[in-house]
Design a protein that fits this description.
InterPro entries: Ala_racemase_N, PLP-binding_barrel, PyrdxlP_homeostasis. The structure is a single chain. The chain has about 230 residues and is an alpha/beta fold. About 40% of the residues lie in helices and about 15% in strands. It has an eight-stranded parallel β-sheet. Helix 4 crosses helix 5 (about 105-115) and helix 6 packs across helix 7 (about 175-195). The longest helix has 21 residues, at about 175-195. The relative contact order is 0.16. Bound molecules: pyridoxal-5'-phosphate. Pyridoxal-5'-phosphate binds near residues 36, 166 and 207.
């Protein structure tokens, strides 16, 4: 199955990112597109791959593992886990992903580190920050980021790369920028306290707020709807 809209929507998403980087006076290629393929079939991932996309984000573990099996013949896909994870499900993430964006407690981090196979490079991780302080949302609170990052930076199976957030929805560029600016400032603080850790990643910005995120330094924007179209389910 191929999707007739995908080539145009992927091209449009690339243009959006390119324009946002220009508006932010940042170099081209200073941020990349993470194609969020949750609920979408493996055939669409395959098609996006033929169009040059390599980084894919999945939220639901079993669904992701099924698609990975279907796409075992496709070379060079970089899989990112971006959904909530129960601590009894860490092994599959440690074994089957290159990146994990939603680490928000030490217990999960320790398990991922212990379970990372020794023949693979360390698992790249971002700490998920509850930047809008929503009671219902996962993520470490901003004031607890430094302590958690310090502990995670020492785990041998992990490579701490940066921070990730999903701010509360806001409309208007200025309102959208504020939480992204806070996340950037948290990363800048960590870069000072952990000078030996390659903290180069701000995973922020989705289909509705990519421009605001890029203005505040996003390096990885997670686009689902804008690339693959609306989802039937969450
Ligand atoms: C679904 C999802 C996205 C993509 O959202 P869109 O609004 O469809 O671009 C990005 N990040 C996370 C963590 C998601 O769960």
């Amino acid at each position: 199955m191929t999707d007739n809209a995908l080539p145009a929507s992927l091209a449009h998403a690339r243009k959006r990112l390119e324009s946002a980087l220009i508006d932010a006076k940042r170099p081209a290629n200073d941020a990349s597109l993470l194609a969020v393929s949750k609920t979408k079939p493996a055939s669409m991932i395959r098609q996006a791959w033929t169009l040059g996309q390599r980084e894919f984000g999945e939220n639901y573990l079993q669904e992701a593992l099924d698609k990975q099996a279907e796409l075992a013949d496709v070379e060079g896909i970089v899989w990112h886990f971006i959904g909530p994870l129960q601590s009894n499900k860490t092994r599959a993430v440690a074994e089957h992903f290159a990146w994990m964006h939603t680490v928000d407690r030490l217990k999960i981090a320790k398990r991922l580190s212990e379970q990372r196979p020794s023949h693979l490079p360390p698992l790249n991780v971002c700490l998920q920050v509850n930047i809008s302080r929503e009671a219902s949302k996962s993520g470490v609170m901003p004031e607890d980021v430094a302590a958690l990052a310090e502990q995670i930076a020492t785990l041998p199976g992990l490579q701490l790369r940066g921070l990730m957030a999903i701010p509360a929805p806001a409309s208007g560029l200025e309102a959208q920028r504020a939480p992204f600016a806070e996340l950037r400032q948290l990363l800048e603080a960590l870069q000072k306290t952990l000078p030996d850790t390659p903290l180069d990643t701000l995973s922020m910005g989705m289909s509705d707020d990519l421009e605001a995120a890029v203005l505040e330094g996003a390096t990885l924007v997670r686009l689902g709807t804008a690339i693959f179209g609306a989802r039937d389910t969450a």
